[in-house]
Amino acid sequence: MKVVTPKEMAVMDRHAVAAGTPSIELMERAGHACAEVIKVDLDEKAQIIILCGPGNNGGDGLVIGRSLIEDGYTVHLFLTADREKLSEDSQISLKRLEDKNIPIRTLQDDADLEDLSLIMKRATHVVDAIFGTGLVDKEIPASYNRIFDLVNDFDREKIAIDIPSGLRGDIGLTIGNGIFADKTIVIQNYKTGCLLNDGPDYTGDTILIDIGIDENSIPNEKYYTQESDLKFPQKRKKNTHKYDYGSVVVIAGSKGMSGAGILSIEGALKSGGGLVTCYVPQDIYIPVVARAPAEALIKTYDCNITSDDIKHDRKKVILIGPGIGRAKNYSFILEHLLEGSLPVVIDADGIHHLAVVVDSLKESKTPVVITPHFAEFSKLIDVPREDILKDPIGYGQKFAMEYQVVVVLKGYRTMIFGTNGEIWFNSTGNPGMATGGSGDVLAGMIAGIAGQNVNLFEAARAGVFYHGKAGDYYAEHFGQSTLTAHSIIESLKYVLK
Ligand SMILES: NC(=O)C1=CN([C@@H]2O[C@H](COP(=O)(O)OP(=O)(O)OC[C@H]3O[C@@H](n4cnc5c(N)ncnc54)[C@H](O)[C@@H]3O)[C@@H](O)[C@H]2O)[C@@H](O)CC1
Ligand SMILES: [K+]
After folding, report:
1. Counting atoms of ligand 1 from 1, which one is nearest the CA of 55?
2. Which CATH number is 3-218 given?
3. How many angstroms is it from 140 CA to the middle of ligand 2?
């Protein structure tokens, strides 16, 4: 399923209209489909306030109102703009309401706002159909901000249509303040703004509705990962042995951070890696051997280790970085590994050291994936974090294509950038997973999956998905507070089958 920017959504809308579906029909479909979702939670005592803005998002709200009223629900409809300012389709929707003698008020002055706030005291639901994907990046008038504040103070169900008002549909940042919805009914496709930055905090739970718009009228570029999209796990042959499933090398750990390698080893083993060898510095060899899973081999290395040293013994993929620290210079090792022919996963402090030799990525012939969070990515590409947040898709895509490296940009909805420009938004995971060691497990999983003859891009998509799904499994059963990196490892067996 594609993820779209508001501009792309507008292109898809126009194509649907050109292909023969009038835009008012699309509005009817959107409004009725939203009403069906809303009705699921309503009982006969429900009182629903619907706030309708000047554009087609407001028009959706008007259709929702008509649908709910026809079904006998108590609805209070408000326009936030003068009738003359409504879009063409909204004017039609308004007329359809008025033809049925359904009253609708306009919020014009303080007295109207006072009325709204009184009705809110007895209402059970507020529907936000003020602004949708047509919100433009300019200051929103103060009168709107007062409405947003009233809605945010409402302590019962707040439902946004398509995207919460005030939230930018492209980058998930607000213009001034915005409406914090409990639930957002997303029309046709996820907008990038639902998934980026503050988007998930404003949208709350999301429910996608289909109004029959074809997503093939825009280029194939951004997708939302579904489990059925993944090419992993693959069915295992019967005539097989452990070297068919991995032989992963993990270069990890340093004094004070010996646990990082262990978490990566476990991530690799629990995602099906057949054999894991962990190279650690001499000074942490004993504690790592004492705590590592019995299935893993632990070796020591020096700073001259190369991909060729590792390659004999049928190794298939190298992970470097978890817990290696910044004290020693790893850039030399990284250069060696990038000159070799084994795929390389670079994580955590490995990315810090990569910054020094970043151009070796361009010369490297071997597949590489890096797994930075935003701060690490900002240092690597030398662009302030705030600038990246305003255009994470652009920066991630540019780097992945220019340096021919798969980029896993970690966040609530991690993005995986392919070297061909493709972007996959992950659909699993929860804030409880923002915990120490979670990234070490993920890096281990990506390497573990890549070792099973899965290409690095696919391994990154699958690793991120199942890492998140394992975290979601734990959170569903035990909550987010006690979730640790080990909870992810332990939950993998329930979600990766
Ligand atoms: N064919 C279509 O285009 C469809 C559109 N749909 C709905 O229409 C929405 C998009 O409709 P529109 O493009 O009309 O846009 P919106 O309804 O999101 O907003 C546009 C209106 O808001 C005003 N506005 C924009 N930015 C502002 C700002 N910063 N401060 C104050 N006012 C501002 C504009 O002047 C305009 O009146 C979608 O989110 C969706 O809900 C659906 O009905 C399905 C079909
Ligand atoms: K809205």
Report:
1. 17
2. 3.40.50.10260
3. 14
CA distance 272 to 274: 6
d(CA 113, CA 115): 5
CB of 162 closer than 6 angstroms to any ligand 1 atom: yes
> The dihedral of CA 307, 312, 317, 323: what is its sign?
negative
Residue 36's CB is within 10 A of a number of other CB atoms, namely 14
Closest-CA residue, ligand 1 atom 21, reads 55
For ligand 1, say whether the CB of 26 is within 6 Å of any of its atoms: yes
Instruction: Extract the tokens encoding 150.
Output: 């009233």
Asked if residue 443 has its Cβ within 6 Å of ligand 1, the reply is no
Q: What is the location of CATH 3.40.50.10260 in the chain? A: 3-218
The boundaries of every CATH 3.40.1190.20 domain in the chain are 227-495
Q: Tens of pLDDT along the chain (497 residues)?
A: 999 999 999 999 999 999 999 999 999 999 999 999 999 999 999 999 999 999 999 999 999 999 999 999 999 999 999 999 999 999 999 999 999 999 999 999 999 999 999 999 999 999 999 999 999 999 999 999 999 999 999 999 999 999 999 999 999 999 989 999 999 999 999 999 999 999 999 999 999 999 999 999 999 999 999 999 998 987 777 777 766 666 899 999 999 999 999 999 999 999 988 899 999 999 999 999 999 999 999 999 877 777 777 766 677 899 999 999 998 889 989 999 999 999 999 999 999 999 999 999 999 999 999 999 999 999 999 999 999 999 999 999 999 999 999 999 999 999 999 999 999 999 999 999 999 999 999 999 999 999 988 999 999 999 999 999 999 999 999 999 999 999 999 999 999 98
Neighbours of 202 (CB within 10 A): 23
**Ligand 1 center to 165 CA (angstroms):** 10
ipTM of the complex: 0.98
Six-digit token pair at 17?
A: 């209209």
Looking at ligand 1, which atom is closest to the CA of residue 54?
A: 37
Fold of 227-495: UDP-N-acetylmuramoyl-L-alanine:D-glutamate ligase (3.40.1190)
Amino acid code (one letter) for 387 = D
Asked if residue 187 has its Cβ within 6 Å of ligand 1, the reply is yes
Ligand nearest to the CA of 175: 1
Instruction: Give the C-alpha separation, 159 to 127, whole Å.
Output: 5
